[in-house]
Amino acid sequence: MIYSRRKNIFESLKLIEKEIREKIEGKKVLIKPNFTSSRIQKAATHIEQIRGILDFLSEVYEGKITIGEGSGENTFEGFSNFGYFTLKDEYQLPIEFIDLNKDGFEMIPSVALFNCLGHPSEGTKGQVQWGKQSKLGYFRP
């Protein structure tokens, strides 16, 4: 059996398709990869994982997709080095890229973090940063 990041991600999301459809209907979608390094691929989310997510979303979502990261290095260099910008040409979905380090934010008190299915996660209390330009929220414990 050949391991495929893309296929595994896609098939995993298909298993919870109904729940995802319900949670993203009428909402913005942010894909948040992790770039511990913007130069070393093994220290960053592989593009094939993002393709698996986009393959799935292209079947269930028609809105704009934001791919946002706040690397400790140069975020847009990472997007370029790891081939992320090619995704705009590969998919019919409108895709935008943002550097979460560049977006101003305001802190909004939060009582709990909700996971991707909208269920409260135990022991994750903190605040949400709401991007002033991107209008995207992300959790900071």
Protein described:
This protein has 141 residues and is an alpha/beta fold. Helix content is 31%, strand content 21%. It has helices spanning 5-15, 17-24, 47-60, 75-81, 87-90, and strands spanning 29-31, 65-69, 95-99, 105-110, 126-131, 137-140. α1 packs parallel to α3. The termini are far apart. The model is unreliable at 110-127 (pLDDT under 50).
Distance from N terminus to C terminus (CA atoms, Å) equals: 39 Å
Could you tell me the number of beta strands? 6
Helix content: 25-40%
Radius of gyration: 15 Å
Class computed from helices, strands and strand pairing: alpha/beta
Q: Flag low-confidence runs.
A: 110-127
Tell me the number of structural domains: 2
Question: Rough shape?
Answer: globular
Classify the beta-strand content into a percent band: 15-25%
Number of helices: 5
**Helix-strand topology string:** HHEHEHHEEEE
Largest pleated sheet: 3 strands, parallel
Spatial sequence of strands, sheet with the most strands: 1-2-3
